[in-house]
Fold these 2 entries.
Entry 1:
Amino acid sequence: MTDYNQINRLYYQQLHLETIDLEPEDFEQATLLSDRFKNEAQQWQAYVKILGLLALKKWLSDRHLTLDNQIESLPPHQIISSEPICPLQVNGFTVCLLTDENIVNEGIEIPDKMINTPEFAAHFYILIQVSVEEEEAILIGFIRHDQFKNRSLQKNERGNYPLSLTQLNYDSSHLILNLKYLNPVAIKLPEKTSDESKYWEKLTSWLEGIFTETWQPVEELIKNRKPIIQMAFRSYQTTEKLSPKVVKKFLQQFQITEKPRDKTQVDLSQPELSDTEVNKALVQILQTTEDEETRWQIAELLWEINPSHPAAGVRRAIDLGMQLAGDPVALMIAILPKPNQRFAVLSRVYPLQDQRFLPANLKLIGLDEMGESLFEIRARQRDDYIQFKFTADPGDRFSLQVSLNSATVTKHFIISVK
């Protein structure tokens, strides 16, 4: 069997590439940070990428340069994604790190957004191979953004730019000279306009099934947590899933307060209701009631019964732990269409992993487009979530901040106009 690692190793030796020794403490840190992830494939991806980051940090430090980013504070999606890690900051320059276990001679691929999007474009793209068994990393080469653009490469079917290794600069001394003595403005990057200086998550695109990779299905990220809707039914014995008795009781209580049933409504006096009848009754209320709190209660019930039900709007969550000083919390956003082209929005912060309660004094803050405060919710002792609900119109932009002590994470959202 051909040993491609050995072949590549010999090939790299012929190029006189630099190697970076990985120390036991590097493997310990990579193990600690990668163990945060539940999926085994994600753990290994994170493990290799963190080793690559530690190798780059060490290589720069030996040459009196500093990687400004705290590795443990990088967003989780960057660590487990197959994409390069970007943006990283070194001496005023933006750096994009491409790292893998086995980089074959045919070349690499760089996603379009890493080249043409102001938020991700970098002055330098650095390629490092991590050799776990040999306990070392190899700095293969780099390319500047302006040199990359001058090659006028074409995107492949995956939307990435293919780049052969022969198109890289193998001389690492050139990279050091650039980082130490070149002015960052000498390498022109895509300019940030007032709109592009922040990435605005298009919430209305979620209703069309279009999501960015950072936002995950809630049921995948927030597991084994008691449904929020159960708070309204504390007198009933419930398990992790809502019982039919609870749902039926909610429907009966609602129907008592409404006008008499019409012929299309479900008869709730029946001893047993099928799943179809329950769903139909919930959707009827959702589409007819004008009470905002009731609509959200129905949405919560539908999320538990059928998370992908089209009438329940859409919700997604993001893990903020590695951005929030390591505290395991998640931000959930839900959007629910309203009459007259308006949208109901729910923002909620949950504890993650084995944490039952949120850290005391954690804050959820809403900001308008100008950065002015719209609301502020503060977690108390033994709060298992905090939330805020509001209504947004097409064209509205707002931001949500989650902060704890000196750590703050801000996410920006827009209600797109069709």
Entry 2:
Amino acid sequence: MSIRYELIIYWSDQDQTFVVEVPELPGCMADGETYEQAVANAKQIIAEWIETARELGRPIPEPKGRLLYA
């Protein structure tokens, strides 16, 4: 799966894990023990987010690109 949504990735000292936020998909977040694992988990969560939105008949935002929400 090709990711076209912006990913914000950071280390959480509190959780001792990498956190990935997908700001264009409300509530879409993932984490992982490594950077690579966090990104892989984010790919899965993005796919699930989109699948759920389709099932519920909700709109799926088009990827807008870098720093749209900054």
